[in-house]
Amino acid sequence: MVFKRYVEIGRVAYISFGPHAGKLVAIVDVIDQNRALVDGPCSGVRRQAMPFKCMQLTDFVLKFPHSARQKHVRVAWEKENINEKWAGTRWAKKIEAREKKAKMTDFDRYKAMKAKKMTCRKLEEQYKFALGTGSSSMN
Amino acid sequence: MKASGTLRVYKLKKKSSSRETVYCEQVFEKSPLRVKNFGIWLHYDSRNLTTAGAVTQCYRDMGARHRARVHPIQIMKVEAIAASKCHRPAGKQCHGSKIKFSLPHRVLHHQHKPRFTTKRSNTFF
Asked: Which residue ranges does the record assign to the Large ribosomal subunit protein eL14 domain (chain A) (predicted)?
């Protein structure tokens, strides 16, 4: 298995648990084996030490020198348009879908059930039609 | 019975021109039967954000590596030093912009969600 995402200066990470769970940060410096100095100027995370355990590395890497000031991190972040790029990834979309599902009310679940039933029925009709027009269409 | 914890100390005489060892002699403690208090000045390289954090790390490290308790340790001086002055390789490897490493074998954070399972969890991310 080849590693593709490395801890490096400028790597954007997603915080998986803790007080800033769900936000993106950039690794500004590595303190020691377990911690990094991170900063999320465009995601509302103050510059602080954060253990690698609660970080999940993303595919994005920014360009700035180690221990760069927040201003430079922000400039690099906005230049790469990380917030938009992140929102377009499947990872972020899955998180959003999960959150939406958790917020579902009973009425939402009813609507989802009805919509699923309708699509299933339509699919079944098409399937039966395909069968009906004879083996020619199936084979 | 030999005194506990005897370590052999050797004194080396080096040739001044070529720095080669010319003479090696065991050195004995002048008063081995007297109890003395030794104060040891340490240089502890700690890579940290705050002074308090660095001192805490020092105490923890002393306790872990040398079973030293708090009472016999006296911190003489704490100073933030330039990266070039650091000696320990463990701290030096975090210096600079070129640091890059992967996070292998990521152990699950939610160890008890689920506590029992039939499939082995993924550790490669």
From this structure: 47-118
